[in-house]
Amino acid sequence: MAVYIALLRGINVGGKHVVKMAELKRLFEELGCKRVETYIQSGNVLFESDEAEAELRRKLERGFESAFGFFSSIILRTSAEWKAIIAGCPFTEQEITEAEASSDVECQYAAMLPEPPGSDDIARLETHRSENETYRIAGRDVYLLFRNNGIRNSKLANQLQKLSVPATVRNWKTMNKLAALAEALER
Questions:
Q1: Mind listing the pLDDT tens digit for each residue in 8-65?
Q2: Where are the beta strands (DSSP E) in the chain?
Q3: Distance of CA 138 to the CA centre of its chain
């Protein structure tokens, strides 16, 4: 069985689309997922499954919409893929250190997509790259680094929601915590 990390997009944000993690865990269990765990309220679910990603994603999204009455894109990565995302961070230690020194808020993020962004999507992101907001794409993952203001008022981050494929973003601390939880689940 593979250990998966599911990222739900747009739940429990600003008091909208509120979903209790206990209910979300129960839904995943009812849909056949094993050893289900959730992490914080932003829609992070870890579990085991034998199913292939595409089929599993469709099943989870349909089940979620049926149970909660609204649609949420669900992005899936295996534990091995998650480790590779973290290990593949394209920013240098110097770039990260400089970004952290320029801000009091989190500066490093990753956006996960169900498939790689198309050329039009990349062009849209490119128009918002700046000295203070940059990104690098690796397959279906977009690494983000912010200086000064962080992600909250980022024009670049706002463009992620306008891509032709769904994207969901997690800060680097959450990325590392999910990696540790996935590793523990593999034991």
A1: 998 988 778 899 999 999 999 999 999 999 999 989 999 999 999 999 999 999 999 9
A2: 2-8, 34-39, 44-49, 74-78, 108-112, 133-138, 141-146, 168-171
A3: 14
* Other CB atoms within 10 A of residue 23 CB: 12
What DSSP designation does 152 have? Answer: T
Domain ranges, residue 71: 2-83
Q: How far apart are CA 154 and CA 133, in angstroms?
A: 7
The CATH code of the domain that includes 95 is 3.30.70
Query: Are 96 and 167 within one domain?
Result: yes
Residues in the chain: 187
pTM over 0.90: yes
CA 81 – CA 157 distance, rounded (Å): 23
In this prediction, residue 16 carries a pLDDT of 82
Domain boundary (26, 54, 83) is at 83
For the chain, where are the alpha helices, taking DSSP H only? 21-30, 53-68, 79-87, 93-101, 119-126, 155-160, 172-186
Domain count, the chain: 2
pLDDT bin (cut points 50, 70, 90) of residue 186 is very high
The answer to whether residues 73 and 140 belong to one domain is: no
* Helices and strands counted in the chain (H then E): 7, 8
Is 184 contained in some domain? no
Asked whether residue 15 falls in the same domain as residue 90, the answer is no
